[in-house]
Amino acid sequence: MLEQDDNIPSNEVVQDIHIKQQQQQLTKQILKQKQQRLLLLRHSYCCRFNNNRHSYDGHDHDECPVTTHCKTMKLLWYHMSSCIDHKCKISHCLSSRKILSHFKSCKYSSCSICRPVRHMIAHSDDNDSSIL
Length: 132
What we know:
Blueprint: H1 11-46, H2 70-80, H3 93-105, H4 114-122
């Protein structure tokens, strides 16, 4: 009969390690999404391209060359400027308002959400909205 080596982790331990790794990966992914949302919102707020101008052919002109999300984020800014619905169903409204509120009020220099975003903003040109 084979004896179990005490140095070999049991199936339960291996499963626990795998679950913790998945949770850490998910946490990193959520963190990255929040940072990207902040950068997209900043970009669209600063972007000089007028994504709302159409010509007679129905196509956008002066489209933002940095991101295809610029127009959507500009529309989201417009919506958020007057939205007070705590259960708003507009895509990205609540999550954007929440992360913007956090960013504006965050005082922690080591905040894992804000620190990298503030660093990117600080090291970009004042007029550079292409820090995506």
